[in-house]
Amino acid sequence: MSNLEPLPAEQDLPADTGTAPCAELLDGRDVPLGRHTVVRRTLPNKTRRTVGAWCFLDHFGPEDVTAGPGMRVPPHPHIGLQTVSWLFDGEIQHRDSLGSDVLVRPGQLNIMTSGHGIAHSEDSPAGKPPLLHGLQLWVALPEEARRQPPRFEHLADLPVAEVPGLRMTVAVGSLGGATSPARVHSDLVGAELAVATRTPAEIAVDPAFEHAVVLTHGSARVEGTDVTGGALLYLGAGRSSLRVEGDGRLFLLGGVPFEEDLVMWWNFVARTHEEIVAARDEWEAARAGLGSTPERFGTVPGGQEPLPAPALPTTRLLPRPRFRA
């Protein structure tokens, strides 16, 4: 998914190491996604930039798309990240410059690794279901992986673990003894939690990870804190278990705190201002048909007009840590 803000801004952070358990509700903000969809963005947040290597989280829907086109995100580029697409309702057609053309449905995983550069589009297909509801997440790639060739994986069958009152579908990483086959490049976990219990269910988690949850359906409490819709509950690190209760669904994300400073702008995750400028220039040159063939980002099938890159800010883009000391 693309960040379609016309003036995407850098995010600053407060002084906080995020290395101890906590329960901090982080409000999201509404962001238009093209002309037809509004998403609730909770990462990056004004008080948190990352949770592990998770660096971006959009929650879209539930939206009735029977009278409209649904999702329409034309071809756009990415560098330095993995996109993780997760649906609760509806269908999305993914096409990318590797030649992938895949329909993702609820409970299935699309994970696209941009490496040094890729382009893709995401659209509601013809004959789409009436509701569209899901998450789009990004994972920042560590230094040793961010210049590798791109790849795409579609996983239709994901592992499930259960404890009384709680069902866990593991999208990435491991949880409850179940391990996803999705390939990632840092220690991560991402899982949908379906909870139906008034007595707290307990999940064993890695104390080296920081964790957060977003509520997607119904109501839930995590570690005694009510999770509100449109917010991210940040839980810090150092926990060996999480207590979850309620009648709803959540998405859990976590990972070892990501210590590399990032420059995040538009659809790019980099380390320097110069890398962002070069990627933008190459995308715009390829989009305009200037110079040589668009080798870095390739061409997305489907005949849609690619998205233009926004104008760069007038100030230099600076690397940011996950917190400010």
UniProtKB/TrEMBL annotation:
Keyword Iron attached: yes
Domain Pirin C-terminal: 197-287
Organism in which the protein naturally occurs: Dactylosporangium aurantiacum
Name of the protein this chain belongs to: Pirin family protein
Domain Pirin N-terminal: 39-139
Disordered: region residues: 1-20, 292-314
InterPro entries membership: Pirin, Pirin_C_dom, Pirin_N_dom, RmlC-like_jellyroll, RmlC_Cupin_sf
Superkingdom, natural source: Bacteria
